[in-house]
C-alpha cells in the first residue's frame, strides 16, 4: 500500500506563511505527479498546485505568485510554501499522488488532510 502523511498546517494571521509537507511511503515504483488540493467548508475540493515527475508545475490562479510547490524526489516528499496567506485560503489541504506500483499498475492516493486556518 501507499501512505501519504501531510504536516505543517495550523493557524496563521493574514499575510503570514506556512509550509506544508507530504511524505509518501509504501510500495511506489514511480511517481507520475503529485499535487495539493484544498476543500473549504461547503465547497468542492479544488486543485491548488501540482508537480509532475519532470518538474512541471501548475497552480490555481488564486495562488499564483504566493504559493510554491516543490519535491524532494529522493525522499518522495512534496512541499507547499504558502506566503501572503489570505482568509480565503482557509481549508483542509490534501496531498495527492498519481503513481505506479509494481505488478499493480497505475493508481492514485490521498492523504488525510491538514487544516490551514488564516485569521483576518
What is the mean pLDDT? 96
Radius of gyration: 14 Å
Described by strand count, sense and barrel closure, the largest sheet is: 7 strands, mixed
Proportion of helical residues: under 10%
Strand content: over 45%
Count of runs of 4 or more consecutive helical residues: 0
Pick out the low-confidence regions: none
Order of helices and strands: EEEEEEEEEEE
Secondary-structure content class? mainly beta
Termini separation: 40 Å
Number of DSSP-assigned strands = 11
Anisotropy-based shape: elongated
How are the SSEs ordered, and which strands pair?
Layout (H helix, E strand, L loop, with lengths): L1 E6 L2 E4 L4 E9 L3 E10 L6 E7 L4 E3 L7 E6 L4 E6 L8 E11 L3 E6 L3 E6 L1
Parallel strand pairs: 2-11
Antiparallel strand pairs: 1-3, 3-8, 4-5, 4-9, 5-6, 7-8, 9-10, 9-11
What this model shows, in words?
This protein has 120 residues and is an all-beta fold. The chain has strands at 2-7, 10-13, 18-26, 30-39, 46-52, 57-59, 67-72, 77-82, 91-101, 105-110, 114-119. The strands form two sheets. Strands 2, 4, 5, 6, 9, 10 and 11 form a seven-stranded mixed beta sheet that branches. The protein has a four-stranded antiparallel beta sheet with strand order 1-3-8-7, with no helix packed on it. A hairpin with a 6-residue loop joins β4 (30-39) and β5. The N and C termini lie far apart (40 Å).
